[in-house]
């Protein structure tokens, strides 16, 4: 699982941008949604999340605003910018290419093992 | 219970600098933690259990605070853009100066011909200084990937790490050594010419050959050492950030992809044309004048010209924006 969690951490930006593509959201909601998708197998640390927010905001991929929920709780919402949409598309493409390549590399290793045995 | 969380956050952010950014961050994390706390309560957990669990998920807040400090640091002073912007101006100036210098260094040869040793020696010195200058200015530019890696490694905040200032200092030093080394490399044949000039014969004495050999060996060693040191320096930083090789590979691949896309095919065509022209002039000129050594300067000039073309395109890109 350590490899998985590392890969997740390595793609935090893509994951967050993907979440924001659906709708504007705030920190806790995003974190909860990620935990739900993963079924509690892996939890993003708050520090990682806020670090990513800062980085993405600096890059101009997301912007934030303070909003009021119907319940009355003040929340800092994040919204994806057009630049962020582009970035997400690019990151997704990069990830897909990487995935293919690693898939190939990993399969070579198992093939060779099989041949040796 | 709200109060208990509030107090906890106040103590958490006790050492944080009193900035608007920091108070916003504090409020944001506080509100999100409150959400989590209320969620846990509604799941039927006790107040104490909810508090402990919600607080445990905050993680290393000190790290985040120090990260914000670095960020403001970076914004004010060490922004990658400002660094590159400052360097870009200097870069363009230095490259222009060094090209003019290289061209003017050839004037003595043009005036007196290659049979006057004095002219050749002056030219070699000129070219050496100019190419040193050129290499220095080319290396002034920061690779954004490396820069962000250094910034990231500062974030991890464990063990011995380099600050951005250290990084800049180290880079400058390496750059200077490299430039001076290459200048010395180019100057190193001077004793050959000088001895030939003194003895008025085309073959230099054994002594000068030995001195030359030693000089070249020492310079090579210096350049090699700095190159290895620089490589190790980057490696240390890289390992600090990406601990798992699989993720490292993905990152490296991403970097490679980005760099590959950066240099467009258009500019590459220019490179090829310039180098072909240089090779052409070298061969034709060499056959005609038999001055192969002097003509090899052609390739240096070609290299400089390709750099200038690249610079020009980058400038055009910036202006377009």
Could you characterize what this model shows?
Chain A starts with a helix and ends with a helix. In chain A, helix 2 packs across helix 5. Chain A has helices at residues 2-10, 12-22, 27-38, 46-59, 82-116, and strands at 25-26, 62-68, 74-80. A 3-stranded antiparallel sheet of chain A has the order 1-3-2. Chain A has 117 residues and is of the alpha+beta class. Chain A has a single domain (2-116), classed as Arc Repressor Mutant, subunit A (Orthogonal Bundle). The mean pLDDT of chain A is 82. Chain A is 69% helix and 14% strand. Chain A has 5 helices and 3 strands; from the N terminus they run ααβααββα. Chain B is mostly helical. Chain B folds into 3 domains: 2-66, no CATH class; 80-251, no CATH class; 259-321, no CATH class. In chain B, helix 2 crosses helix 3 (47-56), helix 7 (117-139) packs antiparallel against helix 9 and helix 13 (265-289) packs antiparallel against helix 15 (297-320). The longest helix of chain B is centred in the last third of the chain and has 36 residues, at 206-241. Mean pLDDT of chain B is 67; it is low at 72-79, 154-160 and 236-250. Chain A binds chain B through residues 2-3, 6-7, 9-10, 26-28, 31-32, 43, 45-48, 50-51, 54, 58, 73-76, 94-95, 97-98, 101-102, and chain B through 24-25, 27-29, 31-36, 39, 57-61, 63-64, 67-68, 71, 155, 242-244, 246-247, 249-251, 253-254, 257.
Feature tags:
heterodimer, A: 117 residues, alpha+beta, Arc Repressor Mutant, subunit A, 3-stranded antiparallel beta sheet, 5 helices, 3 strands, 69% helix, globular, B: 321 residues, mainly alpha, 3 domains, elongated
């Amino acid at each position: 699982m350590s490899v998985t969690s590392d890969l997740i951490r390595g793609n935090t930006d893509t994951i967050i941008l993907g979440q924001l593509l659906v709708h504007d959201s705030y920190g806790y909601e995003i974190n909860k949604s990620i935990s739900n998708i993963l079924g509690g197998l892996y939890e993003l640390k708050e520090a990682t999340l806020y670090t990513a927010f800062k980085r993405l905001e600096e890059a101009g991929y997301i912007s934030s605003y303070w909003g009021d929920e119907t319940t009355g709780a003040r929340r800092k919402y994040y919204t994806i910018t057009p630049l962020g949409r582009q970035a997400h598309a690019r990151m997704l493409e990069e990830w897909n290419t990487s995935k293919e390549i690693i898939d190939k590399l990993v399969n070579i290793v198992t093939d060779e093992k099989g041949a040796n045995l | 219970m709200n109060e208990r969380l509030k107090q906890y956050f106040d103590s958490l952010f006790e050492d944080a600098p009193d900035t608007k950014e920091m108070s916003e961050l504090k409020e944001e994390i506080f509100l999100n933690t409150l959400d989590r706390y209320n969620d846990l309560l509604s799941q039927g957990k006790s107040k104490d259990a909810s508090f402990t669990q919600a607080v445990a998920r905050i993680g290393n807040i000190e790290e985040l605070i120090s990260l914000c400090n670095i960020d403001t640091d970076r914004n004010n002073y060490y922004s990658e853009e400002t660094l590159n912007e400052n360097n870009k101006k200097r870069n363009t100036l230095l490259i222009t100066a060094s090209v003019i210098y290289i061209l003017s260094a050839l004037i003595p040869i043009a005036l007196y011909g290659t049979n006057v040793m004095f002219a050749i020696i002056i030219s070699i010195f000129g070219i050496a200084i100019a190419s040193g200058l050129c290499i220095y200015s080319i290396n002034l530019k920061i690779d954004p990937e490396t820069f962000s890696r250094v910034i990231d490694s500062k974030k991890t905040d464990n063990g011995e790490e380099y600050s951005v200032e250290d990084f800049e200092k180290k880079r400058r030093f390496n750059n200077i050594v490299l430039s001076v080394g290459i200048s010395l490399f180019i100057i190193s044949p001077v004793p050959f010419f000088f001895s030939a000039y003194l003895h008025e014969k085309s073959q230099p004495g054994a002594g000068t050959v030995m001195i030359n050999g030693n000089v070249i060996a020492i310079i090579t060693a210096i350049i090699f050492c700095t190159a290895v040191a620089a490589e190790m320096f980057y490696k240390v930083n890289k390992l600090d950030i990406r601990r798992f090789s699989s993720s490292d590979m993905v990152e490296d691949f991403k970097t490679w992809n980005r760099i590959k896309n950066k240099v467009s095919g258009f500019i590459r065509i220019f490179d090829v044309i310039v180098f072909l022209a240089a090779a052409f002039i070298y061969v034709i000129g060499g056959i005609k004048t038999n001055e192969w050594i002097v003509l090899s300067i052609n390739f240096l000039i070609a290299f400089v010209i390709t750099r200038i073309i690249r610079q020009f395109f980058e400038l055009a890109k910036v202006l377009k924006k």
